[in-house]
Design goal:
Order of helices and strands: EEEHEEEEHEEEHHEHEHEHEHEHEHEHE
Number of strands: 18
Bound molecules: zinc ion
Distance between the termini: 19 Å
Strand content: 25-35%
Largest sheet: 7 strands, mixed
Structural class: alpha/beta
Shape: globular
Length: 348
């Protein structure tokens, strides 16, 4: 089969790779649509724990082969990849906190992913879909589940106010979930006006560009003491610091942006957090019991009833063979984008 293989830091190639055969309890997915995740780009730019590796965990396709002992009649079914492979045995797995599993694997990071024509998956790692769901919408289920999980962790309830910092792909998914779940006011910030325009289209009530306006001042005018829930999706240290002043006393802050590990913040940050009695909550992936969790079933339901808009989030489509070029351009900041869909079948 053809696959896109990360061979070293900033070395990615489109090449022949052995086609997987599903072993006992496994299935093989014939990939139809692939979405590029920011974490795929990060693995390319910063380097990764293992090479060679087929990247990719936001995928959909058709199950074309099943191994021995697969309990359900999966062949021919449409499915998306559920990328986390928890052990299901450890203490955290038994509590349903699969993201905290002590010995997990991850499709596209610790084992072969979906930037290929086929991927081998444990049967528990396929999320079965209705045939009528477009493959490129299905490829975006996983990032939607992360956004939905953030709102669950922040205990978001209808009628609350929220600020989303960063209108990249996770930020835009969060905006949609806030709209679907009945937010009273959704404020979105981003330094790119293009991103803010899309945010407005998918549900933001107010958009603020911090390079043009004083966000703290605007939020004070709009919400008084701040939002009930603030969602950090930029991974920028000073934005993280700002979450405190944007959140009302006893409010919640959920973090999804990966921060640079070589930087630090002054501890005035913590003092202000204490004074406001805020909850600062980390988010890692998107899972809850029963596996893979309500985040997944709710995303599918929202796709089927039309409330989740995936088309607006897709900025580019390329054949899989173009992936190395696309990674190079993104790595060199030469391709402004939202979600990019790759297809293993040449789209000409
Ligand atoms: Zn992802
Ligand atoms: Zn575990």
């Amino acid at each position: 089969m053809k696959a896109v293989v990360l061979e070293d830091q900033k070395v990615i190639t489109y090449k022949d790779f052995p086609t997987p055969e599903p072993g006992p309890g496994h299935v093989r997915l014939n990939i139809k649509a692939i979405s590029i995740c920011g974490s795929d780009i990060k693995r390319y730019v910063d380097g990764h724990r293992m090479y060679p590796l087929i990247l990719g965990h936001e995928n959909s396709g058709i199950i074309d082969r099943v191994g021995d002992g697969v309990s359900r009649n999966y062949a021919g079914k449409h499915a998306a990849i559920i990328p986390l492979v928890p052990c299901f045995e450890c203490e955290e797995c038994k509590r349903g906190f699969y993201s905290a599993c002590h010995s997990y694997s991850f499709i596209g990071s610790r084992q072969s992913g979906g930037f290929a024509e086929y991927v081998d998956l444990p049967e528990r790692n396929v999320f079965i879909l209705p045939d009528e769901l477009p493959f490129e919408h299905a490829a975006l289920i996983e990032p939607s589940t992360v956004a939905r999980h953030m709102l669950a962790l922040g205990d978001f309830r209808s009628g609350q106010t929220a600020i989303v910092l960063g209108a990249g792909s996770i930020g835009l998914m969060i905006v949609q979930w806030l709209r679907i779940l009945g937010a009273e006011k959704i404020i979105v910030t981003d330094i790119l006006d293009d991103n803010l325009q899309i945010a407005s289209k998918v549900g933001a009530h107010v958009t603020l560009n911090p390079s043009k306006v004083d966000v703290a001042k605007e939020v004070k005018t709009l919400l008084g003491n701040g939002a009930d829930l603030t969602l950090e999706a930029t991974g920028v240290p000073h934005v993280l610091e700002q979450t405190i002043s944007l959140t009302r006393p006893r409010g919640k802050i959920v973090l999804a942006g990966n921060q640079p590990l070589d930087q630090s913040l002054p501890l005035t940050f913590i003092e202000n957090l204490m004074r406001r009695e805020l909850s600062l909550i980390g988010c890692f992936m998107s899972y809850s019991a029963p596996f893979p969790g309500h985040e997944w079933t709710e995303t599918l339901a929202a796709l089927m009833n039309g409330s989740l808009d995936m088309d607006t989030l897709i900025s580019h489509r390329f054949p899989l063979s173009k992936a190395p070029e696309v990674f190079e351009k993104i790595g060199a900041h030469q391709l402004a984008h939202q979600k990019i869909i790759l297809s293993p079948e040449e789209v000409a």
